[in-house]
Amino acid sequence: MKKIKVNQEICTTIPMGSQHVALPEPVKLVFDTENEVVKRVSFDVSYVHRGIEKSLTTMYDFKKAPYVVGRICGICAIAHSIACTVALERSIGIDGEVPDRVRAVRMIGLELDRLQSHFLINGHLAEVCGYENIFMHLWRCREFILDTADMLFGNRVQYDVVCVGGVNRDIDEKTGTRISEALEEIEESIGFMEEVFTRDKTLVKRLEGLGVVSKDKAFEYGLVGPSARASGVKTDCRIEDDWGMYRDFGLEIITMTEGDALARCLVRVLECFESVRMIREALDSTSPGEEIQLRVRDNPKKDAVCRNEAPRGELFYYIRGTGKKIPGRVKIRTPTFANIPILPHVMIGVRYNDVPPLLMSFDPCLSCTGR
Amino acid sequence: MLKMFITSIKNLFRKPVTQLYPYEKYEPFDGYRGKISWEKGKCTFCMKCGRACTSGAIKILIYSGETKEWVWNPIQCIYCGECVRSCPFGALIQEKYYASPITKGEKLDWSEIEKKAGRLEDRWRRQLRDRRGKRKSE
Fold it and tell me: pTM to 2 decimals?
């Protein structure tokens, strides 16, 4: 710790990261504090750069791209795969021909991913608040979701189920019924999570009124995902750029008006109910045994864009097709990239011990941002 | 707060949901992404699996004459199963059980194999080009 002068006040500089107990991934934050109150924050996020965008335009042909981009993030892998695949399909010009069964299986994968991600971050937030019991219990509940994913796709988090023109594996009837049973158990644990985050005095007092983002500010800084929805911005890419059947199933966009850390958590909890409903609808809408893979003969030739709703918010993919097997340019814009610029403004005036829960309430995923 | 207190007490006496893996036997679900096994009799060395492999973990060594070899790198493999789906003869199977990538005493010199495969592929490509050139000139 060293002391420096900021605006003629003596401040203490506290570095947090690049490795820290509260952080699941490497990020460096430097706080200038005066009597524990944060006065200035600076950021460094790109500790995990792996050059995936470049490798997609040099090493891998487009059929391998969904597997490669799945490695960008361990938690929202399938969101990346789907966004990339849909963009490629639009570039080739086969996005209208994709069968309903494929859309349903992709939806099930994405919603399962959203469920486990929301359980993970809410549990982690509770741990950062100092409430170890909730952390343990929520991660215990998350284990059922991971088992369900294992049963469906053969992997716990890295599903690898999406490929250009379809999906790799179908869900048979026996697994379908087992999933319906598992969903009931999952729904019960979501109910528990809702009760804890609305009634538990310790958590509510800690998180209420922390890091308030107004609706105008959320617009101004371009927040995405649950963070934007907690401030009252009605945005959801599943509805806006619908690659699946979300509009047909009547997905409800959950918004809150408070805009504080608790609201961001609650939006995530309520979204879980909606995800479970979407999985049920998708399972019932189509039956196994339909065609699950289209034959892809062409190469990507047009410019194409896909916006997909990852657990953390809008995920944007741009692909420039050149008529060759390897695309000319791949651009990825991740949700955390949009959610980070507001953090220094929200953190000013907050006590230092409230910084980790505030940071976690925005659900940062830094491997995505660094990639 | 009371609810969480009761749940915590209950959790003290519940069984853990996770497994003590090396000591307890893990029973995988159907369709688990396990080891990839190769059947020599069915394989025609068409190289479709090698081309479909995302991580470049499959190499086929074609020596002069009839000796051919299928090599798989279990460490580099991401177990996506793309090779199994691409095989038209059913020579590759993704097994249900997990096998350790490398057993004790086994040594896989992958860089050497890649170099060899690259050299052989280059030679094979050169031969193809020459043949095409001959046909065109004819």
Answer: 0.87
